[in-house]
Amino acid sequence: MSGATKPKHRALGLTDREAERITALLDREPTDPELVMFSLMWSEHCSYKHSRRLLGRFPSEGPGVLQGPGENAGVVEIEPGRALALKIESHNHPSAVEPFEGAATGVGGIVRDILAMGARPIALLDSLRFGELRSARSRHLFVRSVAGIGHYGNCIGVPTVGGEVAFDDRYEDSCLVNAMCVGVVEPGRVLRAAASGADNAVVLIGNRTGADGIGGASILASAELDEDEDRRPSVQVSDPFTERKLMDCCLELASSDLLVALQDLGAAGLTSASSEMAAKGGVGIDIDLDAVPLRQALTPAEILVSESQERMLAVVEPRLLDEVIRVCRRWELDATRIGVVTDDGDLVARSGGEVVARIRATSLTDEAPAYRVALHAPSPSEPLDLADVPEPTDLATAWRELLGRPNVASKRWVFEQYDHLVGANTIVRPGGDAAVVRLPGSNRAIALTTDCAERHAELDARGGGAASVLEAARNIAAVGARPLAATDCLNFANPEKGSTGWRLREVIEGMSQALEALGIPIVSGNVSLYNESPARAIYPTPVVGMVGVIEDAAARVGHGFVDSGDVVLIAGGGRPRLDASEWLGEARGCPDRPDAASEARLCELLARAGERRLVQSAHDVSGGGVAVALAECAIAGRLGADVELPVERRADEALFGEGGGRVVVTCRPRNLDALRDAAGGVPLTEIGTVGGDLLRVRIGSDMAELSVADATNAYEAGIPEVVA
Amino acid sequence: MSVAVLRFPGSLDHESAQRAVESVGGIATSVWHADAELPAGVGAVVVPGGFSYGDHLRPGAVASRAPIMGAVRRHVDRGGLVLGICNGFQVLCEAGLLPGALRPNATLTFVCRQASVEVADDGSPWTAPLGVGARLSIPIKNNQGAWFGHPEIDRVALRYVGDDRLGSVTAAAGVLDESGRVLGLMPHPEEACDPLLGSTDGQSLFGVAAAA
């Protein structure tokens, strides 16, 4: 790239107006390192410049919220003396370039976000999207991403307890790898990123700095990927062993009250960490780049923006510096004083005795541009005409085929590669609705899930946003928990094109309305834009990570059928429709808008019924409709059922239709009256009885029958068959 | 007497192992890898699971040379009991305290699932309370759990039941040293010591450790 044809700022992804704004803020031309620092901090990935104005809509406050959006992670109180830190983040573009390291470092990054709050990470979840598995490229991305997540999570000893994966051609060129982490922290020991106290030491802890990941945030994560450029050097390399030591070390430092502030080094590396710490604390930071331990020779600009992994930046009082370094040495980690806190508000970087950058810290953070996205509404979707959907000739064959489709089939192939047990607290394992993790030293447990209704969001952004939140809530409630708080990862296409901006706004509106109906806040989140190639743009994919609380861990509810003779019911309402369903297999039609208020009542009923031990099992109806939900209950419980479903326009609609907020629950016959009393206004439809080794479903004069063994074989073979 | 639970950089299951000891009424003491001696009054040593030293070189290779391992060797020579779980099993094989070696799983992947194992040799302090043929439901979770050795010479304490054999010779899930005082196993008994976790079958081994 010659400077004559392309000015430096454009090569770095900055617009001409942004370059002018930089010159105005500095009141002079930027140095080369300064320009690189601005280009990263003002990238979409770091500054949310296209989404910031819209994100304010989210409800983010509540009585238990100790830290809302804007820190490394949100923090919400769960019981006296204990709070949860939670955050979800994307690592989409690196994973598309190098899936193993991209996915692995995605896990590493989110763990450090939790650690930066002073919290002990206790659970991980991953939400994944790939193209169809008949594509060799998508199979490769899927297999290697799963291996990378497992490699990292297993080695650091944080259980990967849940998540989701789905396949659709729209993700062929832009796979999604979103990682969520939850940690526990004492409310009085929550750490924050704000630096304070002039002359306090700025200490870099962990790995040495190398050339990996340079420019990742601006080059990879803030523009569309095209084929002709090799971006491999922009992907970071993972070292989970160092991460584990970093975890043990930082938690020891935090619990010994040795730190003033802590921040992880993620996108834009040292530049981002130091400018955010300085800006949040209203102070300056003066860094000596010559003190930064290096793996290889780097220029000052490279040191400032390297995204080498497993590094944390801490602010330490001078009198405690020796003690901090001693603890780090015990964990066999480098800890180096690389700078000091100053009171002038400037981020200063020195090299060889020269000042190579001096920027007001807030210029990099708060002064980043914020754009209004164009709001072009797409033409509204029309409901599906059933005449356009071929009716299956044999319902049982269709049912079995659906159970084996990768989007529906068992994800055992994925979660058995993850240590979902380490810590000995996982009391509901992956494969059902939410996972449940017991809190050590407490009777309480937490439920965790990630969910997204992307095909719905494609057809009706507001409805799909709401549906994503409500599906997460139903999964939380199905295990007997009450939703507590959420984190979100908004994966979208190029916001400067088409109706992406409008969809972003509408999804946020739909999510916000649903969150308000449930009475829970969003406490942290992440936005990933430009998930688009010249050939394909992804669906709007607002992944919702949610946590809930079970007051008595022993009362958690599983999804498998439990005893012969138990009554099978559908709790909740809404009509089953094939629009955007798994049976239809594509985003076509127009699903009904969810009714958030009645779904909130359904969730409360499920939590109450769980607490009072009124239900034996509960399972959310989602992809594949009631037929798939019933099969999953049967497979998990190794018990069949005899069921009669309400008649719809067609039998396949009754069996495979989705939509509404519906949950399959079972209860002992003697608890049926108590369950009905508890239901209040929530619809409760008795549909059959558990028992035998057959699943038999009648819809009017139609019938579908599948043995539990056949259903299990189809369900378990779906993914291994295509990846083997 | 207390149960010493070792901790190396990269140990992951030390806290679960301590809780497992406590779940059977025992006293657990955390012992740091760099220490040269075990604390006084230790009856049994647990080498817990995890990825000590990030599995660098080979799983267990670096930890097997840690200062504390000299003390563990002397503890065995004095007649003490040692239980190695997963990475702890790998450490004990690398240290020469157990026969054979652990190879990558036949699946070439990490495998995490509930497994069923059966006692094959009850002539040891660890397995005597269970008896030959006793079945335990305990999770496995490892990358390199395929034991390789000489089953006609070496003492196989536990075998997998069913298909979950990972590629282990004679489906061995756990192996004893000649004396029977050192047991290594790939399944994680510390993850099966609480009804909420779905199984308490792991408590027997911790009961032996706590009573030593």
CATH class placement of the domain at 380-409 and 558-718 in chain A: Alpha Beta
Low-confidence stretches of chain A: none
What is the tally of beta strands of chain A? 26
Largest sheet of chain A: 7 strands, mixed
Please report the total strand number of chain B as a whole number: 11
Mean pLDDT level of chain A:
94
CATH topology of the domain at 380-409 and 558-718 in chain A: Phosphoribosyl-aminoimidazole Synthetase, Chain A, domain 2
User: What do we call the CATH homologous superfamily of chain B?
Assistant: Class I glutamine amidotransferase (GATase) domain
Gap between N and C termini of chain A: 44 Å
Q: What is the structural class of chain A?
A: alpha+beta
CATH architectural type of the domain at 380-409 and 558-718 in chain A: Alpha-Beta Complex
The main sheet of chain B orders its strands as: 2-1-3-4-11-10-9-6-7
Q: What's the helix count of chain B?
A: 4
Q: From the structure provided, what is the oligomeric state, counting identical versus distinct chains?
A: heterodimer
Terminal Cα span of chain B: 7 Å
Can you put this structure into words, describing what you see?
The complex is a heterodimer of chains A (724) and B (212). By secondary structure, chain A is α+β, with helices and mostly antiparallel strands. Among the domains of chain A are: 191-369, Phosphoribosyl-aminoimidazole Synthetase, Chain A, domain 2 (Alpha-Beta Complex); 380-409 and 558-718, Phosphoribosyl-aminoimidazole Synthetase, Chain A, domain 2 (Alpha-Beta Complex). Chain A is built from 24 helices and 26 strands. The relative contact order of chain A is 0.13. The model of chain A has no long low-confidence stretch (mean pLDDT 94). Chain B has one domain: Class I glutamine amidotransferase (GATase) domain (Rossmann fold). The mean pLDDT of chain B is 96. Chain B has helices at residues 14-23, 67-77, 87-94, 203-211; strands at residues 2-7, 28-32, 42-47, 81-85, 101-103, 111-119, 135-142, 146-148, 155-160, 172-176, 182-185. Chain B is globular. The A-B interface holds A 147, 150-151, 154-157, 239-242, 244-245, 248, 331-332, 415-424, 426-427, 438, 440, 553-554 and B 9-10, 12-13, 15-16, 19-20, 50-51, 53-56, 109-113, 139, 141, 143, 188, 190-191, 193-194, 196-198.
